[in-house]
Amino acid sequence: xxxxxxxxxxxxxxxxxxxxxxxxxxxxxxxxxxxxxxxxxxxxxxxxxxxxxxxxxxxxxxxxxxxxxxxxxxxxxxxxxxxxxxxxxxxxxxxxxxxxxxxxxxxxxxxxxxxxxxxxxxxxxxxxxxxxxxxxxxxxxxxxxxxxxxxxxxxxxxxxxxxxxxxxxxxxxxxxxxxxxxxxxxxxxxxxxxxxxxxxxxxxxxxxxxxxxxxxxxxxxxxxxxxxxxxxxxxxxxxxxxxxxxxxxxxxxxxxxxxxxxxxxxxxxxxxxxxxxxxxxxxxxxxx
Length: 288
Hints:
alpha/beta, Nuclear Transport Factor 2, Chain: A, six-stranded mixed sheet, four-stranded antiparallel sheet, 39% helix, 24% strand, elongated
């Protein structure tokens, strides 16, 4: 009988010891959980953990909403005039729609901190914009080459920023400069990119302009894409004045002179842009 009582006492002692150990373990786990939660709250408060800011879906039709603020446009160091025109057009477009004009930097100027801290727009070709090559290594972005998608064509693509998932990135690429320029034109026409994260663009399809430019209608259509022309037209249109455009061709120079004139007696009411039939902008002058 005594042996039975001793066994029961030993068994009861072991059970109490197990319970005590379980309580200790639970207390430790609770403490660790609270510490982890507190740490996350502190980190989030300090900005070390950043929640995604872009609530919009990553599709091209959500441009420029996705790029309302904190935007850097990254171009190559040796961009062509046509690529510069594309850059200016995108910057102007964003400024008009969001009220914030983005910063423009070359691939050599942009820092690692800026790559992670900004929404990025990369513009150009992989042989002129070195940052595009880095993007190819870090993401599954479409690789644009001289052969794909081809002459006069390009690719518009929106995706997450590989340096910071809370930021977004837009690629405006082309097999050549006209493919890049076509991308900047299409960005202003949401109906052509609806619900798409990527689209192939074509200069002739996007603009209706073929080179060499052989008609006044084409010359004016091409000139209308220029940022300074847009500013001139907007300035006078918002004051209730109509703006007329007239194009004249010079056989000797192979240039088109496109004159814009506001319907007003004010002398400073004109702006002229001179373009070669191959699309090169020769001169701009007038009043803005």
